[in-house]
Sequence to fold (703 residues):
Amino acid sequence: MTDAIYLDNNATTMVDPSIVETMLPFFTEQFGNPSSMHSFGNKVGFAVKKARQQVQSLLGAEFDSEIVFTSCGTESDSTAILSALKAYPERKEIITTVVEHPAVLTLCDQLSKEGYKVHKLSVDDKGRLDLDEYKELLDNKVAIVSVMWANNETGTLFPVEQMAEMAHAHGVLFHTDAVQAVGKIPVNLQQTKIDMLSLSGHKLHAPKGVGVLYLRRGVRFRPLLRGGHQERGRRAGTENTASIVALGHASDMAAAHLTTENTTVKAMRDRLEAGILAAVPHCFVTGDVDNRLPNTANIAFEYIEGEAILMLLNKAGIAASSGSACTSGSLEPSHVMRAMGIPYTAAHGTVRFSFSRYNTMAQVERVIEVVPPIIAQLRKLSPYWGENGPLLEPDKAFLPVYA
Amino acid sequence: MWDYSDTVKEHFFNPRNAGAINDANAIGDVGSISCGDALRLTLKVDPNTDVILEAGFQTFGCGSAIASSSALTEMIKGKTVDEALKITNQDIADFLGGLPPEKMHCSVMGREALQAAIAHYRGEEWSDDHEEGALVCKCFAIDAVMIENTVRDNQLTTIQDVINYTKAGGGCSSCHEAIEEILTKVLAEQGQKPDFSQPTEQVVPKKPYAMTNLQRIRRIEMIIESIRPQLQRDRGDVELVDVEGNTVYVNMTGACAGCQLEMQTLGGIQQRLMEDLGEVIRVIPAKMREQQQLAQIQGV
Fold:
């Protein structure tokens, strides 16, 4: 698979070899429990402390004690939202958005079954929020606002810094799921009013199974996992030391490459989009094109289905992902595409290409060559596609018995 | 990535009969664009003999939807419409060497397109009784409306009932929470409460080309026969007595009977059988069953 082209970095990233190197001693000679008094644990304790400072520096947090290591982004999201509900039991409302990651949406759906009122902010056709709608909802009945910093499917950025200011003006806690944003755009939490933030290691070249909850000093907090005194009692359970050390190193590397992301990586993304849009008719970029992550391109190919595209791309050695229903085993296309009002004939054909600094421009050129014939091949099979293009009124020309 | 069979992949990468038949006299359109599946089947049928001369498909859908369409057109060509109608969605899946459970609906769509096209050929109105709700059981593609109606019509009260009547929840069990909610809701309408006290059993999906009982017993006999020479070398022997579900009863004779290594030998036979049949098998000395039966009789 050395020739394979990996363009699915929003799903997960390659662990950098130098990061693997830093982890290894913590499986062997540095196996001690950081809580132990003896010298086996003591050194490990210092390594965890250093990693905490590295993450603090990447996030621009004021204190290293604001960094709580968790097992993943999902755990951080659940911890943040459930903590706010427990800390403010008289507040029964939550504000979030329709395009959040399932880590937040599924939890909120469950909470609404348990009696909480969940407000989901809608988005327009480019995936943008209406801040007036948001402002109307802010009052002392709201326990927490949870809004993602960058959308995982389209890369669209939300104005979370401004939204956190607005929440604070109404005395409401603000959490952001920033697993896609951290490492790709500048973050400086001490200059914001963001109270809690979720980060996931494997999105920035650290391994899977480690995450962070940023918890601003002074924010009322109730732990999800109770037990030992680890993480100052805010997240019990023996630390995943090797992965924590890896995340620390990955944070340093991410900080060093922030410019690369916004120049080299962005240039590759832009070239890919321009190349595909020029060669393939009836396709378009989804999301807020002028305000998104530098590494993400989400292209809707009309009248065909995404899983079929991915299978053909995979055969050509290219890895990407799709918002199609079939890839997930559900029967509904991506909730993000539906929320933006993308028609079904396009929503099922969305393909996300997400880059990292380990991609090359040569790879981009290869993808630009491979994609157009794949799209043409599948359109030939499509009942919505005629001899020379889409049927003029696909809905009338092809109307299945049940729809 | 889905675990597609080689046949599925082959039919996806090289679809047969893709595109519309120009002078078709049977057309079936089925599918649901919201679900990302739509299929138009076009057939040319000889009006004198009812034989399907040509078949073509156009599919908007995933890899297995395209493969199912391709398989269907291959299967029906040369058949009369009556013969073609006997093809079930399981036949389509079998032709493809099986489909992942979540993808069985692709074969259902093929079967429905065939029904629709033949109805069109015969000048009949084809209507689908498909009523769609939110998908609850992804393993067997059962939606909420279907479960609700079945619970109501049959006065079901437990998840096991729902599994037995609809299959929903009989696979991975991740939808049991959703089924509990449906049961609670429907029973509340009748002023009743569901019963969640009993654990549920898993439905094991039937494997394509599963062996018949006779074939399976013959297979077991054959494997045991192949082990016998080794035992005979040590002046022992083994004899197949009975097969009951997953339990195989044997008699150990000669030097093997009562030998200290008897249990170990049985374990070896059991391992061979499991590897060959691909299922969990217990090998038990027949005399143990006799002792148990005797104990039961004496107990009475």
Observations:
- The radius of gyration of chain B is 26 Å.
- The mean pLDDT of chain B is 85.
- Residues 213-233 of chain B form the longest helix (21 residues).
- Chain B has three domains: 6-122, 135-190, 213-298.
